[in-house]
# Entry
Amino acid sequence: MSDHLDSTNKIICVKMDAKIVDELNERSNSMYLSVSNYCQRVLQEWINSQEKLNLSED
# Structure
């Protein structure tokens, strides 16, 4: 790992549909945030809410 990276941070990669990526780009741009920062904020808000995520197969 590079010396300039904070050892408390981890990098994750998520493969997703291009339409979702476009939506994330639009939303993050509207808030003047990077996609990474936007996703981090959204996920943190969800985790803080302590709501369960209901997944189903379609």
Summary: The mean pLDDT is 88. The longest helix spans residues 35-49. The CA atoms of residues 4 and 58 lie 43 Å apart.
